[in-house]
Amino acid sequence: MINMSENILKYEENLKPNVIEMDDTINKFKRLTGRLHELSHRMLLVLIVILLWEILPRTGIINPILLPTFSLTLITIKNLLLSGELQVHIIASLQRSIAGFGLALVVGISLGLVMGWYNRIERYTDLFVQSLRNTSTFALMPVFILLLGIGEVSKIAIIFFGAVWPILINTISGVKSVESIYIKAARSMGVSDGELFKKVILPASIPSIIAGVRLGVKTSLMVVIAAEMIAANSGMGFFIQNARTIVQTDQVYAGVLVLIFMGLIANYTMVWVEKKATYWKGDLDRAIS
């Protein structure tokens, strides 16, 4: 009987790792099916739009000259990529938007932290900032061209102007929205102003700053296209405008589709950055729950 009991115990011990491994596999499968189910919901409307895009021109409900089919648009993109023409314009747009956005990122976050931390500076600059940020970026494009010419400087400057305001305002808001109890607790422990800013204010402001950065990325992509449509000989804005002028509508929609892909990549890249920068929020949420 003793030997039988020992054998049963050994069998149960050997069985435990297999049971745990099976549970892990089941949980992974459940997570995968859950993600696929969520993705199917997200993709449903997109697939309906693509289906209509393909059917309407084919059936003649919409003139194919005005709206080429989705499949023809994809073929046009493939041919443009194989010829290398599309890459030239994509790179030109990205270089301009990255340059303007990079300047906006440095200036917006730096000024935002200072203005959010020092109330006196914000009081003196608030009217000026509010006046400029509520001025249409697109309306100022002719002004930038008049002052800086039609070269790269004017395009980068207008991208900077459009992207800096959401970054600046969200940074200020992030600094000001830090809970006073955290500041009081840090000061009660004798933390210096520099350490307080570094270890309390800045980390707590990151979610708001990232939200502003996401808006800045979107704005920089929008503004660069508009600027290239007005005065440029390269870039996606120029490509779309030129295709429209010569009535190459398949290339127009190909350019628009490429811009959609670029916007999605930029957006989900920023979502990933936000998750990495605010990983501590997830730990806090789990601790609270």
- Under the CATH scheme, which architecture of the largest domain would be assigned? Orthogonal Bundle
Rg over CA atoms: 27 Å
Low-pLDDT ranges: 283-289
Can you tell me the overall shape? flat
Name the CATH homologous superfamily of the largest domain: MetI-like
Helix content: over 70%
- Count every helix, treating DSSP H or I runs of 4 or more residues as helices: 11
Number of domains: 2
**What portion of residues belong to β-strands?**
under 5%
> Biggest β-sheet: count, sense, barrel?
none
- Number of E strands: 0
At CATH level 3, the topology of the largest domain is: MetI-like fold
Integer average pLDDT: 80
Helix-strand topology string: HHHHHHHHHHH
**Structural class estimated from helices and strands:** mainly alpha
CATH C-level name of the largest domain:
Mainly Alpha
Distance between the termini: 48 Å
Written overview of the protein:
This protein is mainly alpha-helical and 289 residues long. The chain folds into 2 domains: 1-67; 72-288, MetI-like fold (Orthogonal Bundle). Helix content is 86%, strand content 0%. The chain is built from 11 helices and no strands. It has helices at residues 2-59, 70-83, 85-117, 119-133, 141-148, 152-176, 180-188, 193-230, 236-245, 249-277, 279-288. It is flat and about 75 Å long. The protein starts with a helix and ends with a helix. The model is unreliable at 283-289 (pLDDT under 50).
List keywords for this structure.
single chain, 289 residues, mainly alpha, MetI-like fold, 2 domains, flat
Secondary-structure blueprint of this entry?
Layout: H1 2-59, H2 70-83, H3 85-117, H4 119-133, H5 141-148, H6 152-176, H7 180-188, H8 193-230, H9 236-245, H10 249-277, H11 279-288
Helix pairs in contact: 2-10, 3-4, 3-6, 3-8, 3-9, 5-6, 6-8, 7-8, 8-9, 8-10, 9-10
